[in-house]
Amino acid sequence: MEAARIDPRLPEGAPAPAPVLQLRGVERRYGAFRPALGALDLALGRGEFLVVQGPGGCGKSVLLRLMAGLERPSAGSVHIAGEDLAALRPRARAHMRRSLGYLPPGAGLLLQRSVLHNVALAPWVAGNEREEGLRRARAALALVGIDPDRQGDLPVGQLPAGERQCVAVARAIANRPALLLLDDLIAPLDTARADRVLNVLSQFADAGIAIVATQRADAGAAAPLPAPWPARARALRLSDGVPVLPAVDSGPAA
Amino acid sequence: MSASPLNVAPARAGALQLALRLTLGRPITLVLFAVCAALCLATLLLGALAWSRLQPLQAPAWMHAQALVLASGAAGENDLSATGAGLRQVPLVVAAEFIGRDAALSQLAQRPGLAGLGLRELRPNPLPDAFVVDFAPGSSADAVEAAVAQLRRCKGVESVQYQPEPYRRAQALSAALRPVALLVGAALLAGALLGAALAARLRAPPDPQELRLLILLGAEPAVVCRPYAYAGGLAMLVAAALAWWLARAVLAQLDAPLAQLAHDYALHWSDQALTPAGGALFCGALALLGALLAALRARSALAAALRDSEY
After folding, report:
1. Which of residues 184-213 of B touch A (CB under 8 A)?
2. pLDDT of residue B58
3. Closest approach of chain B CAs to the CA of A179, in angstroms?
4. What domain count does chain A have?
């Protein structure tokens, strides 16, 4: 199948924007227990690819939910494109959410609905017409290796786990967001699909899109990211909600 | 597989399209809802209409206790006025209508059956001046009889004619009918509410998973709820129109017998018709109510779906 391409590049000569994502002293506590996420400072510029690693329960998903504005930090602040999420009104927060791509844990798909419907949901919510939404969905599906003509009308529930994950990734990228937050990205994918998806994401990062992905990894000494992660990806290892490696500074990747 | 309904559309026209799809996409549900809701609404409409036609609600004459007070034969005009004033002072008396002997004679003379009886022969033993005394509606029979005894002691009163038994029977009948009427009314209301609840349950609630996902993708709650609100308004509009048609059909059959019944029992009965303007108002108001209830339901489902999320 010939993969369609989406060119998400920003206009030439655009002024360098503020960090796409910035966390300042972010902490998340649930009740009186130890913090799920310790005080964390992080800045992510355009085109940066950050992989948050750690064992189960170390705070990876909490971190992504905080970044997506789905949880409120107990302390500190989360800024997207310079805007403090906690200070945004609900309408502005909804608008902000439309401009990022979020892959929730478990993919968050409507299993009874068709593949195309699930992916087109994102552009439709963003205000695109029905046909435009479907067109974007088809393009995004083709990018991640799902044939929209053959599989587009299938209920998502009929697909194997790896393909469902691809559908969810397609939905996350369908709106050409400025920031991609991908929770537990590659665990459900086989090697070939993981390569393909990460290759696509690498192209997105080349075009200036900031990406944060999480990966479950056993606790241990910090190590460079192995394949299939692209070379440009940097790691942030969490242990008990505290970073083991220093967070990535702002600024686009070389 | 055809494209499933997508329950989000930023534009109002798109939301209306989705609402139409939500409403017409399940015709059996729509018909069941419309019939149940229409039966409830028609019952309430007919009840309200009957109530308004009986306004101002007055107890009929036969439900009042009345007494005929005969004044002393030799009383002059001033004495009669004083007697009338004295009668009105008695507790429970709400009216004392004076009927003079001449007026009584002329009324008798106008009756066809009495025309040839030579009423002038009554001159030597003339009809007395009289007062028709009305007691307050709803007074107990004992209290009325005590008031009658007091009337007898009033100055200028020759005698008081009062038959306690009919009023006692009417009181007993009224006391027996009131709980029955309340019971029937309560049963009708409960039936209407039950029907409304049943009708509301027939409307499929929004899918919580889909609502959660829509919010996750950045849909505004108002935009998410809008198609459901429109669909609720449309369904209620259909039910209201059906209820209006049912009420008109029932009234067409029952209007004349009900008016006759009211006349026979001396009840006030106004002749109000179900006008097209009233129908439009009724349907419009209920469509708005349906939209409001559906919006509240969608909001509630949305809140439940997002309960895990702080935002």
Report:
1. 207, 209-210, 213
2. 67
3. 13
4. 2
CATH class of B66-161: alpha beta
Rg (chain A; Cα; Å):
18
Query: How far apart are the CA of B308 and the nearest CA of chain A, in angstroms?
Result: 9
Query: B6 to chain A nearest CA, in Å?
Result: 8
Q: Give me the pLDDT at residue A6, please.
A: 37
> pLDDT grade, residue A134 (50/70/90)?
very high
Q: How far is CA A213 from CA A242, B139, B177, in A?
A: 17, 84, 76
Choose between A184 and B306: higher pLDDT. Answer: A184
Between chains, do B4 and A126 touch, taking CB under 8 Å as contact? no
Neighbouring-strand partners of residue A26: A40
Asked whether the beta carbons of residue B218 and residue A95 sit closer than 8 angstroms, the reply is yes
pTM of the predicted structure, to 2 decimals: 0.63
Whether A216 and A152 map to the same domain: the answer is no
Classify the complex by whether its ipTM is higher than 0.90, answering yes or no: no
Contact (Cβ atoms closer than 8 angstroms) between residue B67 and residue B162 = yes
Between positions 215 and 244 of B, the ones with CB within 8 A of A are 215-221
Task: Check CB contact under 8 Å for B309 and A126.
Answer: no
Q: Work out the number of other CB atoms within 10 angstroms of the CB of residue A87.
A: 10
Residue bearing tokens 């050409």: A176
B218 CB neighbours in chain A (<8 A) are: 94-99, 125-126
Q: How far is A113 from chain B (nearest CA, A)?
A: 7
Q: Which parts of B74-197 are beta strand (E)? A: 93-99, 130-135, 157-161
Q: Where are the domains of chain B?
A: 12-59+172-305, 66-161
Is residue A199 predicted with pLDDT exceeding 70?
A: yes
For the domain that residue A227 is a member of, what is the CATH number? 3.40.50.300
* Residue where one domain finishes, among candidates A136, A152, A176: A176
A12 domain residue, yes or no:
no
Same domain, A170 and A184: no
The residue of chain B with its CA nearest to that of A95 is: B218
A96 lies within 8 A of chain B by CB:
yes
E-strand stretches of chain B: 66-71, 93-99, 130-135, 157-161
